[in-house]
Design brief:
297 residues, five-stranded mixed β-barrel, 7 helices, 9 strands, 29% helix, binds hypoxanthine, Pur_Nuc_Pase_Ino/Guo-sp, Purine_phosphorylase, purine-nucleoside phosphorylase activity
């Protein structure tokens, strides 16, 4: 692992590269989740696109539905300058957690103050349906309990403390603003608040794992967001995070081989295609609410 000085230099080098390509420094970062890349389409003004491979230190995204570029532009009447991350990096792709959160550190060095993190997630709370939204009010960093943690290693004291508190990770005012804007826009889709359970993936959960997630207090489960949120908080950013429920995570016991007429074992099975389809269908509402929120920042 490189020294804190080397890491800081890498963040600064990336930030310098970005500064040389844009005329306004962004105030807000948006990370687009699976199928939510349409969020980048709400950017207006003098749009600038920078592929990850043109930014020193950035890894490239390998997942279908994740493009791999930063898009700069403005949102809303207030022309709030925004940096949109189109194509996030996941631990399951083989990167270190530090690599996956590199763009968040660069955002902090650029002077960005607020991050909006979106994801597609499996609904674990009974009653959650595909197409519904969950504003994240807390998380469970399950891999973190076993040491797979984005802040492992020497502390970067220029950003934050060794022992970062996270009891206030999900900004109350931003959650409230999100709810208010959804109401103003008359969004009819159900919006909940809940706990996001982070699993590294890339497998979707087994039935027993879904029951475990539920027992432990997870309302939705997914393979992203938490490392980014932790590092954003450690860098002093305010966080708004949103899960689009794209599928119901199946937690029923599997049909028994003793049964005469067992249900089909594949019933309700999660698939990436379903995730993308649901995200695509709900994306217009998400874009409208996020745009209205950012306009106030
Ligand atoms: N589990 C984990 N990650 C996901 C899911 C899921 O069911 N749906 C979308 N991302």
């Amino acid at each position: 692992m490189s020294t804190p000085q080397e890491q800081m230099e890498a963040f600064r080098r990336a930030a310098e590269t970005l500064r040389s390509k844009i005329d306004v420094v962004p105030r807000v970062m948006i990370i687009c989740g699976s199928g939510l890349g349409g969020l980048a389409n709400i950017l207006e003004g003098n749009r600038v696109e920078v592929p990850y491979h043109d930014i020193p230190g950035f890894k490239t995204s390998t997942v279908q539905g994740h493009a791999g570029k930063l898009v700069f532009g403005t949102i809303g009447q207030n022309k709030v300058p925004v940096m949109c991350m189109l194509g996030r990096l996941h631990y399951y792709e083989g990167y270190s957690l530090q690599d996956t959160v590199f763009p968040v550190r660069v955002a902090a060095v650029l002077g960005i103050k607020t991050i909006i993190v979106t994801n597609a997630a499996g609904g674990v709370r009974p009653g959650f349906k595909p197409g519904e939204l969950m504003v994240i009010d807390d998380h469970i960093n399950f891999p973190g309990f076993a040491g797979t943690h984005p802040l492992r290693g020497p502390n970067l004291a220029e950003f934050g403390p060794r022992f970062q508190p996270l009891s206030d990770a999900y900004d109350f005012e931003l959650r409230k603003l999100f709810m208010d804007k959804a109401k103003e826009l008359k969004v009819t889709r159900n919006i909940y608040e809940g706990t996001y359970f982070y699993a590294t993936g890339p497998t979707f959960e087994t039935r027993a794992e879904v029951r475990m997630v539920r027992t432990l207090g997870g309302d939705a489960v997914g393979m992203s967001t938490v490392p980014e949120v932790i590092v954003a908080r450690h860098s002093g950013l305010r966080v708004l995070a949103l899960s689009l429920i794209t599928n119901e995570a199946v937690g029923d016991k599997p049909p028994s081989a003793f049964e005469e007429n067992p249900k089909d074992l594949s019933e309700g099975m999660a698939s990436h295609d379903e995730v993308l389809e649901t995200a695509d269908e709900a994306s217009k509402d998400v874009e409208a609410i996020v745009a209205a929120v950012v306009n106030e920042l």
